[in-house]
Every structure is written in structure tokens, then in C-alpha cells.
Amino acid sequence: MTAWLIKMFVFSLIVTIIIEAAVAYCLRIRTIKKLLLITLVNILTNPPAVLLHWLGSIYLQDLPDLYLQLVIEIIVIVTEALIYQSFSNSSVCKVTADFKSTERNRHLQTPQWYIPHTFILSLVTNICSWTAGIILF
Q1: φ, ψ dihedrals at 23, nearest 5°
Q2: CA distance 75 to 73
Q3: What is the pLDDT of residues 92-102, one digit of tens each?
Q4: How far apart are CA 74 and CA 122, in angstroms?
Q5: Beta-carbon contacts of residue 21 (< 8 Å; ≥ 6 apart)
Q6: Most buried one in 31, 47, 72, 136, CB count within 10 A?
Q7: Distances 3 to 63, 76, 137 between C-alpha atoms, Å
Q8: For the purposes of burial, counting CB atoms within 10 Å of the CB of 71, is it exposed (0-12), middle (13-18) or buried (19 or more)?
Q9: What is the pLDDT of residues 38-90, one digit of tens each?
Q10: Which segments of the chain does DSSP mark as H helices, in order?
């Protein structure tokens, strides 16, 4: 039983990280720092989500599995979006010396950790990883 649980947690985490990083990359989140942030956030949120689903399926047998999954996924989406937003807001901006060509150097003026549309990013990546989980499991 223990080996099965470890495989379940590890496989779920690896698949989630691969899919969410790939989706984020497709959504133009391409710096190593931001992809690392997405990986770390998934390490933080995926194991508790898998544990809650496993425990919920044991102790809440009257609740349809889809409802349980949706509640857990909503919690994960909101949590991840808030973490991404907190990193986006707390970053220090890089300052550029060339004020004449602000459009060309606009990328230098954004915070290093800035992620646009954090809720949409979290929603899309989690829908993709949840769908893959449905297909694979």
C-alpha cells in the first residue's frame, strides 16, 4: 500500500509539472525563473490536492467524485494564482538607462517575476493537467 501511494504521489506530481510547465511555456512564460516558480508552486499544491482527493474518496463516498475533484481544483487554482500574484507584485523592477526608447526596453522595466494574468494562467494550466489526470488515471 505504501509503495502504491508513493507511486501515485510521484507520478501525479511529475505529470502535473511537465504539463503545467509546457502549457505555461506555450503561454509565453519562458524564463527559467518563472518556470521554476511554476514547478515549485506545483510541488507545494499537488501533493495536498492528491491527498485530499484520496482521503475524500475514502471518507466521502456519497459525494460524487467529480464534485470532490472540482472543489479541490478550485482551491488549487485560487492558491496558485495568489502565489503567482504575490511574486509578481513583490519583484524589484529593473531600471533602464535609455529613456528615449522605452518601447524597445519595456521588457527591462517589468519585474523579474512578473506573470501577466495570474488567474488565467493558473486556470488554464490546471485544466490541462486535470484533463491529463482524467485521461491517464
Answers
A1: -65, -45
A2: 5
A3: 544 444 455 55
A4: 10
A5: 35, 38, 39
A6: 72
A7: 27, 25, 17
A8: middle
A9: 999 999 999 999 999 999 999 999 999 999 999 999 999 999 999 999 998 87
A10: 2-26, 32-59, 65-90, 106-109, 118-136
